[in-house]
Amino acid sequence: PEHNFIAENFVVSNCIGGVAATDPDEEGVISPGGIGYDVNCGIRLMRTNLTLPDVKDKLRHLLAALFNNIPCGLGSTSSLKLPFHELKQVLKKGAKWAVGRGYGSAEDLERTEDYGRMEGADPEKVSQRALKRGKNQLGTLGSGNHFLEIDLVEEIYLPQVAEVFGIARNQIVVTIHCGSRGLGYQVCDDYLARMRHAVDKYHISLPDRQLSCAPLTSPEGEDYFAGMAAAANYAWTNRQIIMHWTREVFQRVLNLSPRDLGMDLIYDVCHNIGKFEDHLVNGKKRRIFVHRKGATRAFPAHHPLLPSVYQSVGQPVLVPGDMGTNSYVMVGTPQAMEESWGSTCHGA
């Protein structure tokens, strides 16, 4: 049978910025290539009570302390080394595991997409090789386009929205960009290999082998979803721990209390993920599976999945620039729900 992608123009390869929705009731498929290797790569933005004069003379000390406390680079490992049984708890509980061990607060979870935990995760669907790769990498940035960045807010375009987000002109904010490290990569790699056989098994015709997939309701599809969800929970835990260590560095270097620093999480949003969501299709609400690869969720005001603090304005949408361009904090709109399954770009 033909397995139809609801989204248009998602046919040749699986490009960065691709969004595709499939319907499990109509032989819809799930594709690891439509989500990406770095499962739940995402952005986390924190506000502070600081302005540039507060940090200007200590920026070198801050950067040195951040480099010393938060490992980065290819193959970087952490001082936090978990036994496998504890790592599996991370894969089940996500950021809640980190908060339960003192890495942050319950308020952080409120301001994290899906509260930092994806339902349906099963650590038993994660290979031993993936577990070994992730065992010593919690609390690390990795390499590529991942970063931890100290930013200065230059312009405010929507003052009412910025006020709700806790953002003001000339304010210091901190951005974290990373994902599920080697564990997520291995989950994707493992299931891509399995999906290549599934394509033949289920007689799925594809324009590009990178879109190898399986029906959502098949054993292969269900296993990949459970493994992908586990990797997503690892990524949320990773960013939660990095944020906690970042707070500690700022407090120590600037000699500030947590209250005076005011480094509160604005939002954490992922951009390599697949989720079951409710959307209007031809005027009717349907439960569909949305693949986002290099695409950020962008839900509007009053969406039931947003925390109460953002119900009146919409979801914070975090779009980072590269080292030579600006980054942007945007807000979800109803138009995104109509045109792109509640999604937008993910930035650099």
Automatic annotation (TrEMBL):
<protein>
    <recommendedName>
        <fullName>3'-phosphate/5'-hydroxy nucleic acid ligase</fullName>
        <ecNumber>6.5.1.8</ecNumber>
    </recommendedName>
</protein>
<comment type="similarity">
    <text>Belongs to the RtcB family.</text>
</comment>
<dbReference type="GO" id="GO:0003972">
    <property type="term" value="F:RNA ligase (ATP) activity"/>
</dbReference>
<dbReference type="GO" id="GO:0005525">
    <property type="term" value="F:GTP binding"/>
</dbReference>
<dbReference type="GO" id="GO:0006396">
    <property type="term" value="P:RNA processing"/>
</dbReference>
<keyword id="KW-0342">GTP-binding</keyword>
<keyword id="KW-0464">Manganese</keyword>
<dbReference type="InterPro" id="IPR036025">
    <property type="entry name" value="RtcB-like_sf"/>
</dbReference>
<keyword id="KW-0479">Metal-binding</keyword>
<keyword id="KW-0436">Ligase</keyword>
<dbReference type="InterPro" id="IPR001233">
    <property type="entry name" value="RtcB"/>
</dbReference>
<keyword id="KW-0547">Nucleotide-binding</keyword>
<dbReference type="Pfam" id="PF01139">
    <property type="entry name" value="RtcB"/>
</dbReference>
<dbReference type="GO" id="GO:0170057">
    <property type="term" value="F:RNA ligase (GTP) activity"/>
</dbReference>
<dbReference type="GO" id="GO:0046872">
    <property type="term" value="F:metal ion binding"/>
</dbReference>
